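ok so I'm stuck.
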Amino acid sequence: MRSLDDTARTFMPGPVSEIISVHHNWDELEEHLAPGHDRSLIAHERALRGDIIEDFEHSVLEIPMSPQFWEPPYVLANYTDDGVDFPAPDLPSCRDNIETFDTTPIDDPDSIRAFRRLVEAWTAHSNGEADAVVVEGGVAEALGALGITEARTAPLTAQEALEWLAWAGASGGAHGKRRGAATGRGETWWLLATFVGLADEWPCNADELGEVVNSLEFTAFTYDKAPTVGWGLHLVIEDPEEGLAIALRATDYE
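replied:
not stuck anymore, here's the structure
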């Protein structure tokens, strides 16, 4: 249990940290795990499943082990002899029509890079495509900067948006290997902290990030040429206090 060779890892449907964590609790695992990257990720995975992890346990993700009060119950994978079951979050249908504004994006390479890192498994190891833009304005301006002229939208709560982002970051898309719920959550924290300017002093304060996240506005979107099958993440995040918005679009194909 201390380590697995690279060949064995290659054929696993997900990361060893997540697979082990599905079937064993932290009390069973702790004494058998050597310090290091795998141990830390297993601790994170077990914390997401309700185990209490000691404060002194090293966090390779540099975020708290236990979900904070402002976070959702994240979608977790289940591994069986038949493979892995990993349902998508249950999100509202996009029914509100909106006309967009042709807008020039502003320069924010760090936020774009953080989003691409979130869905890297989709684009690097599967058939996925991803793009993002940051604008001064709101949903209409952000979607216009993506080249969308008309769209349908639905408001999301902060918890729904976090769940969706973490689901995307945890997955491998249609054909890539899963990265695990802990990694998906970590990439979600990094993206949000980067967009709101809290990543400069990483690790950021969890309570401060929670306050900022709850001040943001989240909107799901779709449009006529959007794929209707496969894997998708279509989300606008608005920061009303700063007058900024980021539109995130990622799609992967079966």
